[in-house]
Amino acid sequence: MSPLLELRDLRKLFPVRDALGRAQGAVRAVDGVSLSVAQGEVLAIVGESGCGKSTLGRLALRLIEPDAGEVRFGGEDLRGLSAAALRARRRDMQLIFQDPFASLDPRMTVEAAIAEPLRLHKVVPRGQEAARVAEWLERVGLRADHARRWPHEFSGGQRQRIAIARALASGPKLVIGDEPVSALDVSIQAQVVNLLQGLIRDLGLTFVLISHDLAVVRHIADRVAVMYLGRIVELGPASQVFGAPKHPYTRALLAAVPGQGAKAPPLAGDVPSPMAPPTGCRFHTRCTFAEAGCREHDPALRGGSHAAACHVFEQLPPAPLARETETGGDRLRRLQAFFSADKPGAAA
Ligand code: SF4
């Protein structure tokens, strides 16, 4: 089956200037990323902050323009679309933002916020928007009469439910969630993860989850892409990436999460500047397995359906299985079970 979303050798540089406006260089936010997302798949993009994962999400939706590379949606190159054609395409591609307090316009009622994309994309006949808004409010665990209220009257979790309703009401095929639960309390996170999982399943959504929370990723992703300094360093099925990580960076990331059970040398030092990434393998300044050749030769992503960008991953000692423990995925599942009575009007 052809992929719904295809990114080919995407690149994005952000120029850096000093106070006088003089060019100081450029941040290589995304530096040659290729990947595809199949219809109905949940792909997670993980990595430390500043690795380029949020920029990649915005490039995929063409909210920002790439400097090079292709974005294909349903086989169509989005770069070739006129502004009007791209606006029409937006109905099929939506973004859920991290901050539920910033993503809703405080001057719009909940009804106006959810009805806006319905009107813009002519999703329902005129006069039927209110009924569709009420339907969506109940679907995300709120009440129909919440439509008359203002965003400031809701908690963070409720606002994120409203933002999810707004994103999904126009019937998109692809949704990108940029840290959609990380700004919420842990107990509320579990409810919203439950809600998202149910909607992905029921609507057959293709979902790209951008997250640094490996417990959430492990719980809902089919495949995982691990990013480091603007590049993908490991890509594979979630069960394999978590169960038998290949790249030393992935091993270190998992080892840094309490309860993931993976033992690996911890990450040493800070992430190098994305304005001047290290030569050869970009991870060599922090990698305990680095050899002389790693400083000179840039490893390609290789290994088939579970690939890693490392010269020597086949020779590394097997990574201990990343067990889940109470402080990792089990905690999330336990909370999800606890809050699974996700009834209209009862949502936080
Ligand atoms: Fe480490 Fe070398 Fe592999 Fe890079 S290529 S991850 S430096 S062992």
- Rounded average pLDDT: 87
Sequence stretches where pLDDT stays below 50 over 5 or more residues: 322-328, 334-346
Approximate strand percentage: 15-25%
Can you write the helix and strand succession as a string?
EEEHEEHEHHHEHEHEEHHEH
Helix coverage percent of residues? 25-40%
Shape: globular
Described by strand count, sense and barrel closure, the largest sheet is: 7 strands, mixed
Order of strands side by side in the largest beta sheet? Answer: 6-7-8-3-9-10-11
Report on this model:
The chain has 348 residues and is an alpha/beta fold. The chain has helices at 53-60, 83-89, 110-120, 129-139, 156-168, 186-203, 214-220, 238-243, 248-255, 329-338; strands at 5-17, 23-37, 42-46, 68-73, 76-77, 93-96, 174-178, 206-210, 223-228, 231-237, 307-308. The strands form 2 sheets. A 7-stranded mixed sheet has the order 6-7-8-3-9-10-11, sandwiched between helices. A 4-stranded antiparallel sheet has the order 2-1-4-5. The protein starts with a strand and ends in a 10-residue tail after the last helix. Iron/sulfur cluster is lined by residues 247-248, 281, 283-284, 287, 289-291, 294, 299, 310-312.
Give a short summary of the structure.
By secondary structure, the protein is an alpha/beta fold. The chain has 10 helices and 11 strands. Helix 3 crosses helix 4, helix 4 packs across helix 5 and helix 6 crosses helix 10.
